[in-house]
Description:
By secondary structure, the protein is an alpha/beta fold. Helices cover 24% and strands 27% of the residues.
Amino acid sequence: MKKLVRTLVEFEKEATRFAEAIIKNKQSAVLVTLSGELGVGKTSFVKAVARTLGIKEIVNSPTFVLEKIYPLPNGRPFKRLVHIDAYRLLNKSELVALEFSERMRDTDNLILFEWPEKVASALPIPTTKVSFTVLPDGSRKISYA
């Protein structure tokens, strides 16, 4: 499925729609990978998803800390939003320090993973792959697989 979003408001609405449609996996954490060039809107998408799920604190890119974990309010299908940014990772062994395998085993985790291509061989098949592309007019194409 592909969506074209022309404005920031449309972008926010699409992220909200996506967050409301996520279904909890009974076997493992839900892993959503987010791909696209630098500045295309991956973290903005995570911020909108976080707001939709009831996170009140400021959500920033975890580029330098690699991972941020946000507890979700009661009544949500997940207990935690795990936001990982692999931009600075050099190889898949660095995921061990993040306890990524343990995070994936916890069915209460929704994991939003930026820059999956950096460690693709270490990742399980994601529940959803989201790709972002900036078009010449500045709009964004969001593709889901």
